[in-house]
Amino acid sequence: MELTTAKDAFDRVVEKQNLSFSKCQEVIDQVSQEIEQALLKIHSVEDPMSPVDQKSILTELKHKLIAISPLKLLEGSQKELNLNLSKFPKILEKSFPDISKAYRDVDFDFHIVNQIIASHFYHQGLFDLGDCFIKESGEPEAAALRSHFLELHQILEALRIKNIEPALKWASTNREKLVQNGSNIELKLHQLQFVEILKRGNRADALNYAKTHLASFASSHLKEFQKLIVCIMWIGRLENCPHSELFTPIHWDKLTEELTRDFCNFVGQSLQSPLSVAIVAGIEGLPTLLKLANVMAAKKQEWQALKQLPVPVELGKEFQFHSIFVCPVSRDQGSEENPPMLLPCLHVLCKQSIMKLSKGSSRAFKCPYCPAEASATQCRQLYF
Predict the structure, then answer these.
(1) What pLDDT score does 1 carry?
(2) The pTM of the whole model exceeds 0.85
(3) SMART domains this protein is in (predicted)?
(4) Which of 106, 150, 370, 384 could be bridged to 339 by S-S, CB 3.0 to 4.6 A?
């Protein structure tokens, strides 16, 4: 849905409205001026009761007003405004179609939906709002998420003022599991703190910090450790240091993003709020769904009866959270009714292809990709 078109149409209506207002004001001022001049002439005649003089002044005023033609001038500007106003609702309807056409009546697990909404509030740091929602929805289980995200936001608040202590405390407490997850966030926190000490120009403090906090990382992260130690020799002229990229402020932003990702992974939550991901993905896929719903309505087909969309809904890679299996034999995409099946030879086909090859019985069939033979009972359904 293109919002620019609606905005341009709105701007045109506003422009015509302003022009119409200016024209109306101009015509009113002009008519008012002529009337005032006529009144001045009437008051200035020697005999104000003389009907002849008054009549001639009023006749002159009449001719001037006819020459001005105020109604014609007002109708012209109003006509242009009305033309743009009449087009605007159609543009709005096109830019903001009735999205209810793409709605499908499905059963929701309101318990899960409530938890997703509460999680979204806590993701955003809106703890009062999340607490209120949990209380009103009667979902006390969702309150467990509060403590996790409260700790995260407290850590992030501290990082904004370059205070790494809360983050270091969390990283050191959970060091073992973070290392298992492939995270080196503790080293990066110490690295940024070390860089701040270098910027202050105190070589003794830098050496002491390296011995106390960085030495333990030397064996596992030798290159990073060597870069930091070399920087000590450049105190006072860090801008000429061969590793000057370590001193750019962007590293604080990168650390904040990485810590947030590691924290969410640690507590078993997604980096992005599931609610926001669902809404953004829905907005991106909505034009395709609306078009499909309109086509099916024109063909008098039942939109609600579809078990699978007949057309793909193209979404960005950021919305792809698992691989999609397409059977190499039938070219059909895997589904709950037609899941991928692992053959003993480790090749994978969809269930319907296996049933066709085995002719729906336990008889052996040859794998299409190798000489191995297998039966349907030997094939194992993969997780889908």
Answers:
(1) 47
(2) no
(3) CRA, CTLH, RING
(4) 384
